[in-house]
Design a protein that fits this description.
Elements: E1 9-13, E2 19-20, E3 38-42, E4 76-79, H1 82-87, E5 91-96, E6 99-100, E7 105-106, H2 113-123, E8 131-135, H3 139-151, E9 155-160, E10 168-169, E11 177-182, H4 188-198, E12 204-206, H5 213-219, H6 221-230, E13 236-240, H7 245-260, E14 269-275, H8 280-286, H9 297-306, H10 325-332, E15 335-339, H11 341-355, H12 361-375, E16 384-389, H13 394-398, E17 404-405, E18 410-412, H14 418-428
Parallel strand pairs: 5-16, 8-9, 8-12, 9-11, 11-18, 13-14, 13-16, 14-15
Antiparallel strand pairs: 1-2, 1-3, 4-5, 6-7, 10-17
Helix pairs in contact: 2-3, 2-5, 5-7, 6-7, 11-12
Length: 434
């Protein structure tokens, strides 16, 4: 691997178009008066894709990073035969994020959240002595835990108790990775609230979620994988969404690919899906509302408990923010689907029968939305369809292995005292553990 020089880019506020330097961990434009995402504008307009030995960093030209970390893998795009035939599609391409050595997919956490983690952690200044904080419904935590453990980056995770089964690993983690949790009955929103309390301590800093350009541009490698494999931008993009960040990222990558000039001028139609009954973005989109509709906390927690795809249960997604999912759907003439657990289960079975690999419940929701869109005549069967399988191959990855689970150091109530949280999380990161 060549000696890597930090990627050259500047930041742009989506709302105002103002361009400015990235002075460090910038998450928004302080001069902008309305909530808006910022984007990276890369110096290199035509991407030069490196070989597979670089993992995710084969797309480093369009990642806002200062270093490459060890152990990453890139998404793998291939032309479907089995599922394509079952659905009568002439040009179905699957972008697979997970573990399936038969097609060269080697993400050991089995989730496309690895694309985020390697990009975000590659953006961190190695001299930073604070602790990164990540709230997660499961897969994001597993990905960040692996990357931070392997690269000795201090990390505090906040995950709901009901989702702790997602924190499995092939071996014990580096003690620089710690976990706190909110009690049973809490959801992803409660885990975010808990992490925000920890962030009141100056010893910690927020990963930033959708506002972090590195998170979005890491996820954007799924679209880059598809376009550079196919040779052109797909006509349709299917993905299940919890926050919608992956779909926003695909849209932003699409714009860069158009500017590149070698992949056509198509704007892929974003076809995103939520797991019913937890469908706050579907509800808002259905009535053409940029603002999310009121969602009672207790009902939201109940709905989150019902759905199989727990990772899709984000109550405060970047939907209405300028540059968020609402704008992405408007710009691409996109759609949102509501998919039941039963439909997703059938889709997962069909995918495994036709493509030979198990997939996660969120990816099953996306597959079910593709099945529904085809059945409803919403897809031109001759056009290029991209299905983003955001996680899969867990059974293959775990086969014959004894797994290790990360356990929380502290479990907090749903309404903890700020001082109690700060005291406990600061004590978790004493000097000897760093």
């Amino acid at each position: 691997m060549e000696e890597f020089k930090p990627t050259q880019y500047i930041l742009q506020c989506v709302a105002t178009g103002r361009e400015f330097e990235d002075t460090g961990w910038v998450l928004d434009d302080k001069e902008c008066k309305s909530p808006s995402l910022v984007r990276a504008i890369y110096a290199k307009k035509q991407i030069e894709v490196r070989d597979n030995s670089y993992g995710i960093y084969k797309f480093a030209d369009w990642l806002p990073i200062s270093r490459m970390l060890e152990g990453s893998s890139a998404p793998v795009t291939y032309r479907s035969k089995g599922l394509a035939e079952a659905l009568g599609l002439k040009n179905l391409y699957i972008t697979f994020n997970g573990y399936n050595p038969a097609i060269g997919a080697k993400m050991t956490t089995c989730s496309f959240k690895e694309t985020e983690a390697y990009s975000v952690c590659g953006r961190i200044d190695p001299s930073n002595d604070k602790v990164l904080v990540v709230a997660s419904a499961g897969n994001t935590a597993r990905a960040f835990a692996k990357v931070c453990s392997d690269n000795n980056i201090p990390l505090l995770l906040s995950v709901p108790s009901d989702n702790l089964s997602a924190l499995w690993f092939e071996k014990p983690l580096n003690p620089c990775v710690k976990l706190i949790s909110c009690e049973k009955g809490g959801d992803y929103f409660d885990a975010i609230h808990l992490s925000n309390l920890a962030l009141k301590s100056k010893k910690f800093y927020a990963e930033g979620g959708a506002k972090n350009i590195a998170r979005r541009d890491g996820m954007a490698t799924t679209m880059l994988s598809a376009a550079t494999t196919i040779g052109q931008i797909p006509d349709y993009y299917f993905q299940a969404v919890g926050s919608g960040t992956g779909a926003i990222a695909a849209w932003e990558a699409n714009m860069r690919l158009i500017e590149d000039g070698r992949f056509g001028t198509t704007k892929a139609k974003l076809m995103v899906s939520q797991n019913a009954p937890f469908v706050p973005m579907f509800d808002a989109w259905r009535v053409d509302s940029r603002e999310m509709l009121p969602y009672d906390d207790n009902k939201a927690r109940r709905d989150a408990e019902i759905i199989n795809a727990k990772v899709l249960s984000n109550r405060k997604p970047p939907y209405g923010i300028i540059g968020g999912l609402y704008d992405a759907l408007k710009d691409t003439d996109g759609e949102i689907f509501a998919i039941t657990n039963a439909a997703a289960k059938r889709a997962a079975e069909l995918f495994e029968q036709t493509e030979g690999c198990d997939i996660y419940s969120a990816a099953a929701v996306a597959t079910a939305s593709l099945i529904k869109a085809v059945a409803d005549g919403k897809v031109d069967k001759e056009k290029i369809v991209m299905l983003n399988i955001t996680g899969g191959g867990e059974r293959k990855a775990q086969e014959g292995k004894e797994l290790w689970h990360l356990k929380p150091t502290h479990v907090f109530s749903l309404n903890p005292e700020v001082e109690d949280v700060i005291a406990k999380v600061e004590a978790m990161f004493s000097k000897q553990d760093k």
